[in-house]
Amino acid sequence: MTVHAFDAAIALAPQGDGVWQGHTSPAYANMIGPFGGITAAQALNAVLQHPQRLGEPVAFTLNFAAALHDGAFAALSRPARTNRSTQHWVVELRQGEQTVATATAVTALRRETWGATEATLPEVPRPADVLPPSRAGRVEWLNRYDMRFIDGGFPPVWDGADEQDSRTQLWMRDNPPRPLDFASLTALADVFFPRIWRRRAKLTPLGTVSMTVYFHCSAAQLQATGTGYLLGQAQAQAFRDGYFDQTAQLWNEAGHLLATTHQVVYYKE
Amino acid sequence: MTVHAFDAAIALAPQGDGVWQGHTSPAYANMIGPFGGITAAQALNAVLQHPQRLGEPVAFTLNFAAALHDGAFAALSRPARTNRSTQHWVVELRQGEQTVATATAVTALRRETWGATEATLPEVPRPADVLPPSRAGRVEWLNRYDMRFIDGGFPPVWDGADEQDSRTQLWMRDNPPRPLDFASLTALADVFFPRIWRRRAKLTPLGTVSMTVYFHCSAAQLQATGTGYLLGQAQAQAFRDGYFDQTAQLWNEAGHLLATTHQVVYYKE
After folding, report:
1. Distances (CA, A) of A233 to A46, A72, A153, B118, B224
2. Best B121, B202, B210, B221 residue to mutate vs chain A (most A CBs within 10 Å)
3. Most B-contacting residue of A68, A73, A81 (CB-CB within 10 A), to test interface
4. Which of A20, B70, B109, B267 could, after both became Cys, cross-link A12 (CB 3.0–4.6 A)?
5. Alpha carbon distance A248, B243 (integer Å)
6. CA-CA distance, A119 to A214, in Å (whole number)?
7. Ramachandran region of residue B18, left (φ > 0), alpha (ψ -120 to 50) or beta?
8. CB-defined contacts A:B, below 8 A
9. Percent of chain B scored above 70 by pLDDT?
10. For residue B67, what are the CA distances in angstroms to A162, A226, A268, B25, B42?
11. Facing residues of A212 across strands?
12. Which residues are CB-contacts of A189 (< 8 A; sequence separation ≥ 6)?
């Protein structure tokens, strides 16, 4: 049995006492350092794998402190507080003596309650009716995802035209397909290409500094989603003095809103 | 000169080495423990007051691990990583041996760049044309804010009717007025009453577990906003198995989007 590239990438070797060793993965390489989504999945995995974990992820925030260099990193995860049904986690990723990421997570034992969805699945064509991009990705991690852009894909020309808005809608899943879980959903929350590229049709240098994912799903719902596509929708609310935000939603094909996510991204000009 | 209740509430006494002592404030008391927004402002203040701080806040996440009991708390803030123009903070609030909140922040030296706003100020009446609520708040902290609901105010009757959506729009500011800064903007990001009360017209027991604020402004812009009102708009995207989210925007009267904010809230039924 072949190990999926995603599972190989997020694998952590326990060093005891909430310390784990991981490695950056060439399969998820970005222009400088790894794809942020894989770093986020690795950090969350240090919580998921922890023997003291209570329940499933509800909220997860990762701050990217520096580009990881290729090679090993240490993940340190500790439960800062354990309540009856919720648990609060503090995570740090380190390379040598340097902190490369900080993170927090809330896990919880969830139980069934009244529910409702206000952000409903937009009317979009089915995944099979949307073409995948015709070219291989310019960076390696892009090849790890099957992305089918419905609206707001990569600019056809990088001519610096102001596109008026930054919205993107796409169907997406792991490539090759892999059954969805909390770690892969976290990585998928970072698949959207930078909103400023979409808005300005210009390859501005940039980097995500902080990212938050709220999970509106159980492990059972993710299992039921399986290898199906997720509809991702992302848009910026403001670009200001070197930082822009992104707010996004991820639904499965059945229309369940699995996660909402936000990030703030540095840009150069 | 009288000290504003907000300044008294967020005051921290330095104990050296990134440790600060603060106190809960009766002026910002909620039903159980303090108003979450004041706890968030206190935690951010442990970064703002830190002698090693670089730049101004860009992103801030606070996780509420437990209700604070009345009295003193310790705030521990440390810069986990300092880069040329960004800095990553880890914060913890403690009472006795217990962690009551964890937080992270990103601060940065920002410089002027191309900018745009996609979430623009909705068409709403001016603050002077909107009446404040006629009754004193049922909990003390509500009296610390001047809130003028335009749309989606407190349900007139708590009859459990499904209101179909959870959106609220209001003008708000400190009461009495106080010049806006990063700490008070952070507290204002938590002023919205719980979305599930708005949606269901039912006083479900609940508590915020995690809250993130992205700042799209400089100290100078906040100073220019002064004691003016902010338009706050908030809505939930999903209510599911004991947790709902809230996504919100805060503009000043001039129409500048100063902050976007998100939170995830536990609810009982």
Report:
1. 28, 33, 11, 15, 34
2. B210
3. A81
4. A20
5. 18
6. 14
7. left
8. 214
9. 99
10. 47, 38, 41, 14, 14
11. A61, A262
12. A37, A40, A211, A213, A248, A250, A259, A261
CA distance B225 to B251: 10
For B152-182, the pLDDT digits (tens) are 998 888 999 888 999 999 999 999 999 999 9
Chain A hits for B239, Cβ within 8 Å: 113-117
Three-class DSSP category at A8: helix
DSSP 8-state class, residue B141: G
- Yes or no: say if B249 and A125 are a contact pair by the CB < 8 Å rule: no
Distances (CA, A) of A124 to A27, A230, B238: 31, 12, 20
Residue pointed to by tokens 């690795």: A42
Whether B63 contacts B43, CB under 8 Å:
no
Q: Is the pLDDT of residue A136 over 80?
A: no
Tell me the C-alpha distance between B18 and B74, whole Å. Answer: 10
Could you tell me if B218 lies within 8 Å of chain A, comparing CB atoms?
Answer: yes
Cis preceding linkage at B194, omega within 30: no
Q: Compute the Cα dihedral for A63, A67, A69, A70 and give only its sign.
A: positive
Beta-bridged to residue A161, according to DSSP, are none
Rounded to the nearest angstrom, the minimum Cα separation between A1 and chain B is 36
Task: Tell me the two tokens of residue A128.
Answer: 């099979």
Asked whether A69 and A33 are in contact (CB, 8 A), the reply is yes
B111 touches chain A (CB under 8 A): yes
Cα–Cα distance between A240 and A141 in angstroms, integer? 28
As given in the structure block, the two tokens for residue B173 are: 């500011």
Length of chain A: 269
> Which tokens in the block code for residue A102?
């900080």
User: Which residue shows structure tokens 């105010």?
Assistant: B153
Tokens for A7, please give them. 């599972």
**In chain B, which residues have their Cβ closer than 8 Å to the Cβ of A102?**
80-81, 88, 90, 104
Residue of A1, A21, A19 whose CA lies nearest to A11: A21
Residue B211 near residue B189 (C-beta atoms within 8 A): yes
DSSP strand pairing (B56-64 vs B206-215): antiparallel
Q: pTM score, two decimals?
A: 0.98
Q: Which two structure tokens, joined as six digits, stand for A142? A: 């892009």
- Assess whether pLDDT exceeds 80 at residue A84: yes
Burial B31-46 (b: 16+ CB within 10 A, else e): eebbbbbbbbbbbbbb
* Letter string b/e over residues B50-60, b meaning 16 or more CB atoms within 10 A of that residue's CB: beebbebbbbb
Alpha-carbon span A60 to A58, nearest angstrom: 7
Q: How many angstroms separate the CA atoms of A235 and A165, rounded?
A: 8
